[in-house]
């Protein structure tokens, strides 16, 4: 049973109140970005309204800006369970942070070294590594996924690791098919080989508790706009790595983390929003305690709610003729997937299906959503990819039912034509 009061939750999100062609909008586009609660909007507005400034000035507005940045760092350290706030750096988005860190890490590589990327990843955790490898004459090996259930073939990882493997770039959850990776298992294999691990947790972050200490990963990235916050990227790195690596930075910038990684002026209004987003999530908890304790219980509540939506969806689609779900469809294995479903419906291209759903106010994504390697591997890149339906905690079972009814009607149109 869901511990979340969705009516009370939804009332906090102004964007969810809108209608499309007389129908309430249904936001099933969470994997591409979530909506923000009023508390996040207020925090960002308040920062700008009380005066914005750069860091380090001898006046009150600048000092307040310093407090806003420190609070956001603290909030993200709680959310990711970093050992210390200095292990958290902010940047424009996950992609830009990954380009910056990949260049810095690549300075430590020699020609003939090797790295591993996966076919399950978003291109933001592939392309930066391919380009850095090309610059340094480094060989790239690919960790594949099983095309039947779209889960990474972690049992083949030991075969890919050699004494030359410097880095494994790997996703915590696929933004296309939802599969969750057993990160600790991947990290243990990589570390036994002296290989660093860079984890993309962008897709996973709104769905489950991240624990960088339990994962023991070396780096981890996420993006606040996927967990109800503003457009800001977040980078975790073990302090020893972040201190030792050479960052591409301007000379007066701090020599130590996190400042050495935060190039230029940050979006401080976004950092105010990041803190508010973490506090919003912690507020979904029904227990008292410190923020990490509340986040832990809140994410468990979210997981329960989202799993119920996934089950309803998967049971519902079995009776829709011509509908195929990619990835894990076994109800018993829902703990191995995020509530993100890539689907096809016979008679429609992905773009046509997304347009038909969009016209009825159901927001979904179509194409490859930058999971280019996934679509390539499934042989769907040229034909326009798949429709992606993503549930988050503010979605309801009534919304899932409306989606199922609409898909039934669209399938019936094709049956009538044939
Ligand atoms: C799994 C995953 N990784 C990385 C990214 C890129 O994140 P950003 O937009 O913050 O660069 C996305 C964005 O959709 C994503 O879903």
Account of the protein in words:
The protein folds into two domains: 6-37 and 302-417, Aspartate Aminotransferase, domain 1 (Alpha-Beta Complex); 41-281, Aspartate Aminotransferase, domain 2 (3-Layer(aba) Sandwich). Helix 8 (212-215) links the parallel strand 8 and strand 9 (219-223). The chain contains 14 helices and 15 strands. By secondary structure, it is α/β, with parallel strands linked by helices. It is globular and about 70 Å long. Pyridoxal-5'-phosphate (PLP) is lined by residues 32, 93-95, 122, 124-125, 171, 175, 200, 202-203, 223, 233, 370.
Q: Which strand order does the major sheet show?
A: 4-10-9-8-7-5-6
| Total number of helices | 14
Order of helices and strands: HEEEHHEHEHEHEHEHEEHHHEEHEEHEH
CATH architecture of the largest domain: 3-Layer(aba) Sandwich
Gap from first CA to last CA: 42 Å
Q: In the CATH scheme, what's the topology name of the largest domain?
A: Aspartate Aminotransferase, domain 2
The dominant shape is: globular
Largest sheet: 7 strands, mixed
List cofactors, ions and other ligands: pyridoxal-5'-phosphate
Q: Tally of extended strands? A: 15
What number of domains?
A: 2
Average residue-wise pLDDT: 97
**Cα-based radius of gyration, to the nearest Å:** 22 Å
The SS-based structural class is: alpha/beta
User: What top-tier CATH class of the largest domain fits best?
Assistant: Alpha Beta
How large is the share of residues in beta strands? 5-15%
Percent range for helical residues? Answer: 25-40%
CATH superfamily of the largest domain: Type I PLP-dependent aspartate aminotransferase-like (Major domain)
Low-confidence stretches: none
